[in-house]
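User: Reviewer 2 asked us to show a designed sequence for the structure in our supplementary figure. I'm pasting the structure tokens here. Could you produce the per-position amino acids so we can include them in the response letter?
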């Protein structure tokens, strides 16, 4: 059996690793556009930018591991087209047949023309090269303008302040992270960054004038799933590649996982596309199970984490389009802190900050009645 994986990110790497762990000894090929072996991205906006770790720490496995496990990783190889009927694909180097095809092409940063045309050095953050370039720009006294008060923008802000840079964050919404966290908890993130000396400019779109003095501009305004390949092949695509609970696309020999997969989620009862590290791993494992014929629906609820200054946070669940009625919290933000987003007297999402012993409790609280208020 030949399994071909398009994309050498965490999701693609996890499929190959899981197939080997579960005893598959067929041919596995990873076609990876980047010139690197598979690596994880979270350190690129955290430990690498802080100078605590080098980019090498981000590799999923070293070269010897891939060799010993007989997984062929073809770096610098971009898939250009897929012929679903013939079960072959064309890369920049050759043609490749498959029996199972796994699409794991990930996301790319949304561009902002205003920044690109600002005449200032502009950075986006997705790859090792991006992270190293930003790290170089974060020097003592440098004026760093960050556009976007989402996770990437705020993590870069924290690293920049750590380096002694003067940091301005421009966010069009009234608060950073407002869409994900709602005003109650988003306000705490705004306070945290202001307490660390970040100039947060909220509620107005960034202008060219705002950037004129910046030594470097970092744009973090979200990502777009890389679905062009799937779409051109004729797979069903709608805000990501549409997949069922087993990660199967509209073609029975093709799976899609990670940032590009818009999954019919068996527990949430709706479609969801998740752009998080844990989802890349979980769907990679589930895709391997589907290939091996042991149907194991991917049922895990979304989970993500962030580190900013001394704050480490985990978030479980998903509020979704129906929103929430109220937020219940306990503890102090900055110290040990817990929050529950509640709809119809049921927890739909939960988070802990600096309260690591609470991880399991918070994870398990999703879908349950809220705990007694403290
Ligand atoms: C800086 C940064 C920090 C992050 N921090 C966190 C965090 O703290 N917590 C969290 O939960 N999540 C975080 N994330 C998100 C997480 O990294 C992503 O959800 C995860 O990388 C998705 O994995 P993936 O394998 O689906 O896609 P990707 O990691 O994007 O990998 C896809 C790969 O496919 C390749 N590719 C694309 N098209 C082709 C083609 N045609 N042919 C061959 N190869 C192709 C791409 O070059 C890329 O290498 C972060 C992301 C970034 C960028």
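Assistant: Here is a per-position design you can include in the supplement:
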């Amino acid at each position: 059996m030949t399994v071909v994986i398009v994309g050498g990110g965490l999701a693609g790497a996890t499929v190959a690793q899981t197939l080997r762990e579960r005893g598959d000894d067929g041919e596995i090929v990873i076609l990876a556009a980047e010139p690197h072996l598979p690596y994880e991205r979270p350190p690129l906006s955290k430990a690498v930018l802080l100078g605590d770790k080098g980019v090498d720490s981000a590799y999923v496995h070293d070269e010897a591991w891939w060799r010993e496990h007989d997984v062929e990783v073809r770096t610098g190889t971009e898939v250009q087209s897929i012929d679903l009927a013939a079960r072959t694909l064309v890369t920049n180097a050759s043609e490749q047949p498959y029996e199972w095809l796994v699409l794991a092409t990930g996301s790319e940063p949304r561009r902002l023309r205003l920044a690109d045309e600002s005449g200032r050095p502009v950075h986006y953050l997705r790859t090792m090269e991006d992270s190293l370039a930003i790290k170089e720009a974060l020097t003592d006294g440098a004026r760093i303008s960050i556009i976007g008060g989402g996770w990437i923008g705020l993590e870069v802000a924290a690293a920049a302040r750590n380096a002694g840079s003067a940091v301005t964050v421009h966010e069009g919404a009234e608060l950073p992270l407002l869409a994900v966290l709602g005003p109650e908890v988003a306000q705490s993130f705004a306070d945290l960054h202001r307490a660390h000396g970040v100039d947060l400019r909220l509620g107005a779109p960034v202008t060219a004038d705002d950037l004129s003095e910046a030594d470097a501009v970092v744009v973090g305004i979200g990502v777009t799933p890389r679905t062009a390949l799937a779409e051109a092949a004729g797979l069903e695509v709608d805000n990501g590649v549409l997949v069922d609970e087993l990660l199967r696309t509209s073609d029975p020999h093709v799976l899609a996982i990670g940032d590009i997969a818009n999954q019919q989620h068996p527990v949430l009862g709706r479609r969801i596309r998740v752009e998080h590290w844990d989802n890349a791993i979980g769907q990679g494992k589930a895709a391997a199970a589907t290939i091996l014929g042991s149907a194991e629906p991917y049922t895990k609820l979304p989970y993500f984490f962030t580190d900013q200054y001394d704050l480490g946070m985990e978030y479980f669940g998903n509020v979704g389009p129906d929103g929430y009625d109220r937020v219940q919290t306990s503890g102090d933000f900055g110290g040990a802190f817990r929050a529950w987003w509640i709809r119809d007297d049921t927890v739909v999402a939960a988070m802990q900050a600096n309260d690591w012993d609470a991880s399991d409790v918070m994870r398990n609280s999703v879908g349950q009645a809220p705990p007694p208020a403290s």
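For the response letter, you might also mention the following. The longest helix spans residues 178-195. The pocket of flavin-adenine dinucleotide is lined by residues 6-12, 31-34, 41-42, 44-45, 78-79, 104-107, 125-126, 152, 226, 229, 258-259, 275-278, 280, 304-306 (CB under 6 Å).
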